[in-house]
Predict the 3D structure of the following.
Amino acid sequence: MKFTFYNLFILLLAIASCSNSSSSNDRFPEHETFKIQSQQVGEERVINVWTPLNYKTSTDSLPVMYMADGGINEDFPHIANTLAKLIKENKIKPLILVGIENTQRRRDLTGYTEIAKDKEIAPIVGGSEKFRAFIKEELFLEINKRYRVTTEKGIIGESASGLFVMETFFLTPEMFDNYIAFDPSLWWNNHYLVRTAKEHLSKFPKTEKRVWFAGSNAEDVSPFTKELAEILKVENLTNLKWKFSDEPKEKHTTIFRATKEKAIIWSLSKTE
């Protein structure tokens, strides 16, 4: 596929601005915030946690959904509000949302790349391994100490955050039970994750996992989400439940909010 300078400019602009930051119309949900000093990423991180209404009045332990882009001025409010709505409508069971506020988004959410153009999007890229270690080795433990949780975990993200979701799915699939990615930046590193998908799937764990991903009409995203869907169809792993939502009427800037409800319902209801 021909990749022009204009394509690159538009794509990088989308990554810079389209973490679907909180809209002025998003109600700020009641939540708790704490800070954690991370040895893995070498800095203090701000964590936002939303719990459903019945959490404080019950003794139940709940599953947890994690998200990067989890600042109060990022995607955390609209995802927390969506979870509250779906729980109220009895479309999903109660769960806890943990949002990780960004410091250097492009550093944390991208993996290694050999492509020079990729390295131009930020002063530092390729930090996803350390960011993943922070979540697994430090944040999981802190959440387990502070909240009543089950062992079930999910992760949700869009664009570069969706790339991180899919990279985690392929490289450390045992880390989460449910993976949700909207318009993941699978073009990264010459679409490395798509090129190596079969290799990673051949080592997939025996425990059941679920992955839901969507692709908009963005010309530098759509071909790779479609290609990945074909690979998953051919490989047909019995312990992997997956769903691809092709959204040609949606743009990179609209797909997250347009499809989040059906993504969450499918991933958490486990009806398929």
